[in-house]
Design brief:
483 residues, 19 helices, mainly alpha, 6-hairpin_glycosidase_sf, Glycosyltransferase, two-stranded antiparallel sheet, polysaccharide degradation, 3-stranded antiparallel sheet, carbohydrate metabolism
Length: 483
């Protein structure tokens, strides 16, 4: 390389640093985001398990009900398997994989992405033993949260909870249908037999959700204090949109077109509110000319774009931004909303680019590349380009939350010290110690800073310093796109 080229590269780096521009290794972040799910695994761990500080756990799940519910993922820093956010996580991992399959393959992460999805769908298949029966939770949040133990030592009750015809849960059933349908698309190229199995489960659960209506916490009240649903209309639309994309069957398109409520303009996209997701999937159909841009179809598209406009700061009611530039939605675990909104911007950019289209917002035009710039700005903030100079992805960089609110990460690995940790003993031994966690849960995205960019790295600060499986799934696709 000539001295002139070396000089110009050095000059460019100095200029970028002077302007506060940080270059992140998005590929590394992508690898860690998928590694995270191995740290959250429940059940019998496979021989190719990469997170070595974990061991087998909860090997009798479902035995109280005479079913095999071993496997799946623990929800957050606890050991409950909450079906509602669990299914949303699988839907978003699948969506990430569908839209950015080529990029995942280029980074040698496609097999890990499919592995993360399959660990979830294998469990969900077990949880759906009959057309109108779905096991929606294993473990009780109240008793689980009163213990601080490794999953391998767990002594809290592993009670199972289900929905059925007499005890419906349209939101839970429909979200699980969406997860199955989306996953079927992800698996179709490599495992068509598995994909068709997933579709059958999706169709049965959608029918169950439609024909036996009600919110799931009425049937599983133990979920109400943790993941209460605000309604099921959004999940029905979301599931119909995924089933249509997976099968191309008119019945699901008719369901979307016959709805009297396309959701209106939303303020978040999350495990509880899927309207934006359904609106974006329908907008793709409009952009591709598969439905007419009129009536309810135009409403879906307009409402999807209004949400995106507000994230891009060109809407009528823009999403709040912290002084450091973070899209800020709600105080508790805000980054889950940031990652999902960032995914929406990234996926929609793809749809617009494919049709050489743009968005006309109240505050001006938004081009597809602007949405990628927005996505990068949020990813960069999460990875360390923020006032705290902290990566909110555990294990990325050197300055990240060292006291992640997470039982398994905070207690010395069973591989190093097999002596059991008792339910209450773990609090004094580990939770209350002002020391870094002995295990690093790579890829965990914490709740994140407050609306003024403030963050306290403390195990007791579960509002900011806890992770959850739904936080990371949308980020997988975004990282694959920009890596």
């Amino acid at each position: 390389m000539s001295s002139i080229k070396v000089f110009s590269l050095v000059s460019l780096c100095i200029i970028l640093l002077a302007h506060g521009v940080t270059s992140f290794e998005y590929g590394e972040a992508l690898t860690k985001s998928l590694l995270f799910y191995e740290g959250q695994r429940s059940g019998k761990l496979p021989s190719n398990q990469r997170v070595q500080w974990r061991g087998d756990s909860a090997l009798k799940d479902g035995s109280d009900a005479g079913v095999d519910l071993v496997g799946g993922y623990y929800d957050a820093g606890d050991h409950v398997k909450f079906g509602f956010p669990f299914a949303f996580t699988i839907t978003m991992l699948s969506w990430s994989t569908i839209e950015f399959q080529a990029q995942l393959e280029a980074k040698n992460e496609l097999s890990n992405a499919l592995g993360a999805i399959k660990w979830g769908t294998d469990y969900l298949i077990k949880a759906h033993p009959e057309p109108n029966v779905l096991y929606g939770q294993v473990g009780d949040g109240e008793s689980d949260h009163s213990c601080w133990q490794r999953p391998e030592d767990m002594t809290s009750p592993r009670t199972t909870f289900k929905i059925d015809e007499e005890h419906p849960g349209s939101d839970l059933a429909a979200e699980t249908a969406a997860a199955f349908a989306a996953a079927s698309i992800a698996f179709k190229p490599s495992n068509p037999k598995y994909a068709s199995q997933l579709i059958e489960h999706a169709k049965q659960l959608f029918d169950f959700a439609r024909n036996h209506q009600g919110v799931y916490q009425s049937s599983i009240p133990q979920a109400g204090n943790f993941y209460s649903s605000s309604g099921f209309e959004d999940e029905l639309l979301w599931a119909a949109a995924w089933l249509h994309r997976a099968t191309d069957e008119k019945t699901y398109l008719d369901f979307l077109g016959g709805s009297s409520n396309s959701g209106g303009t939303r303020t978040v996209f999350s495990w509880d509110d899927k309207y934006v997701g359904a609106q974006v999937l329908v907008s793709k159909l409009v952009l591709e000319g598969k439905v007419e841009y009129s009536g309810i179809w135009s409403q879906y598209k307009s409402q999807a774009e209004q949400f995106i406009c507000s994230c891009a700061q060109k809407g009528n009611s823009n999403v709040k931004k912290s002084p450091g530039g973070l899209l800020w939605f709600l105080p508790f675990n805000n980054l889950q909303y940031t990652t999902s909104a960032t995914f929406i911007a990234t996926a929609y950019s793809q749809y617009l680019t494919g049709k050489k289209a743009l968005i006309q917002c109240a505050g001006g035009i938004v081009q597809p590349d602007e949405l990628i710039t927005l996505a990068k700005s949020q990813v960069d903030y999460i990875l360390g380009s923020n006032p705290q100079k902290m990566s909110y992805m555990v294990g990325f960089g050197s300055n990240y939350p060292k006291q992640l609110h997470h039982r398994g990460a905070s207690i010395v690995s069973i591989e190093k010290n097999p002596e059991p940790v008792t339910c209450k003993g773990g609090f004094d031994l580990y939770f209350n110690k002002n020391e870094p966690n002995p295990n690093v849960l790579d890829g965990a995205v914490v709740g994140g800073p407050d609306d003024n960019d403030g963050f306290t790295d403390s195990r007791s600060n579960f509002q900011q310093a806890e992770t959850a499986i739904a936080n990371i799934a949308p980020l997988v696709g975004v990282l694959a796109r920009i890596a």
